[in-house]
Specification:
This protein is 44% helix and 11% strand. It is mostly helical. The protein has a two-stranded parallel sheet. A two-stranded parallel sheet has the order 2-3. Helix 3 crosses helix 4. The radius of gyration is 18 Å and the shape is globular. It catalyses: an aliphatic primary amide = an aliphatic nitrile + H2O. It comes from Methylobacterium durans.
Length: 207
């Protein structure tokens, strides 16, 4: 990834220290308990994350009818797989999917802040919130994608989708060549959060 969106090596340590201090203060004030943060983290580890999005994409790659439903009535498709739908307060109330094609590559951003479909992509990466990324991706998406290592063919249209409190977008990447005969579980391993954000393509083989 380009250094334009890089952060200092100690960013995680500094942020962790702030989180611990804030958690201690909130517990002291009685706003949360010492189990609250653990419960939230457990939710993101087991219920809401990119593993859900990967399941949706894998099913879309193997079922044309499901793919059509996913891009026209996303929440119904999500419900069909038994994934979190409402997820009130976790940016999952109104999710929408767009599918890449040989003619179109899609990219999601949030120009206002960092709205993001947590139930299917997990927590947003730091660079997604970066003002430089948000502004430049809206203005010059092809150049930004190149900095991420993704060179989109000049003949292919790039469409940028701006997430908001009303709609949180995610991308159904194109299915890699040579994956015929793979099971949905195997295909899901080829789907990364970055591919579902549009800053990368699906893997050619599982890592």
């Amino acid at each position: 990834m380009t250094d334009l969106f890089a952060y200092s090596d100690d960013r995680e340590l500094r942020n962790a220290a702030r989180v611990r201090a804030l958690e201690a203060l909130l517990i002291e004030k009685g706003v949360i308990t010492d189990q609250t943060v653990d419960k939230v983290m457990q939710t993101f580890a087991t219920e809401m994350g990119p593993f859900n999005g990967a399941k949706l994409v894998a099913r879309a790659w193997t079922d044309d009818a499901f793919k059509a439903l996913l891009v026209t009535d996303t929440m119904t498709a999500v419900a069909q797989l038994g994934l979190p739908t409402g997820a009130a307060g976790a940016e999952g109330e109104h999710m929408r999917a767009v599918a890449n094609t040989p003619q179109v590559h899609n990219l999601i951003i949030c120009t206002l802040c960092s709205c993001y479909p947590w139930p299917v992509l997990g927590l947003p990466p730091y660079w997604y919130k970066d003002p430089s990324f948000r502004a430049r991706a809206a203005r010059e998406p092809r150049a930004v994608l190149k900095e991420f290592g993704l060179e989109v063919d000049p003949s292919k249209e790039i469409r940028t989708w701006d997430s908001s409190a009303q709609i949180r977008w995610f991308v159904v990447p194109e299915r890699p060549d040579g994956t015929q005969g793979m099971s949905e579980d195997e295909l899901a391993k080829l789907v990364t959060p970055e591919a579902m954000m549009g800053v990368a393509v699906a893997l050619q083989k599982a890592a």
